[in-house]
Amino acid sequence: MAEAPKKKTLRWIVLFLATGVVDFVQIILDLTGAGVVVSEVLEAITPFLIIALCFVFRIPIINKPRRLLSLLAVDLGDAITGGIAPFWVVDIWYIRKDVLREEAEGSAAAQEAEQLQPSSQPLNQDGSRQPQNLAEQSLVSGATAVMQGSRNANIKPLNIQGVRRPG
């Protein structure tokens, strides 16, 4: 689920552009009176276009009642004004705001769960002390390699298998 920030931004740009074009075309058609029928067809197709684009961009909309109700409210407002005041861009703004709020809640919950987990393992296990940090771990693994006959004889850890060397 880790998407690149560019992809997340791109999906919102595409959604805003698509709905902005639909809004602009509907306003122009209604102001000129040239295509009231076309405007009504756009009014009927646009919610399905938004749902399809959200599906393509993996934005949850079908299982989120708020987002579906916002689509219905904008469609109803568009129908009441006769297509003169389409606000599909405002609906995408609301959906984006809701998605960002949901993502922030998810990341906050993940951070909270991470903080509640113990940050480190106990240092004493089975009667021997475990390395405290990565530097000690590399020394212990180096010591194991030395004990196994490796050529890396320069590494001399302080603690080998729970026994501290003198000195």
Can you offer a commentary on this structure?
By secondary structure, this protein is mostly helical. Helix content is 65%, strand content 5%. It has a two-stranded antiparallel sheet. Strand 1 and strand 2 form a beta hairpin. 15% of the residues are buried. The mean pLDDT is 77.
Number of helices: 5
Label the structural class: mainly alpha
Share of residues in strands: under 5%
Which stretches are low in confidence, meaning pLDDT under 50 for 5 or more residues running? none
Biggest sheet statistics: 2 strands, antiparallel
Helix content: 55-70%
- What overall form do the CA principal axes indicate? rod-shaped
Termini separation: 51 Å
What strand line-up does the widest sheet have?
1-2
Rg over C-alpha atoms, rounded to the nearest angstrom: 30 Å
Mean of all residue-level pLDDT scores: 77
Order of helices and strands: HHHHEEHEE
Count of β-strands: 4
Jot down its keywords.
single chain, 167 residues, mainly alpha, 5 helices, rod-shaped
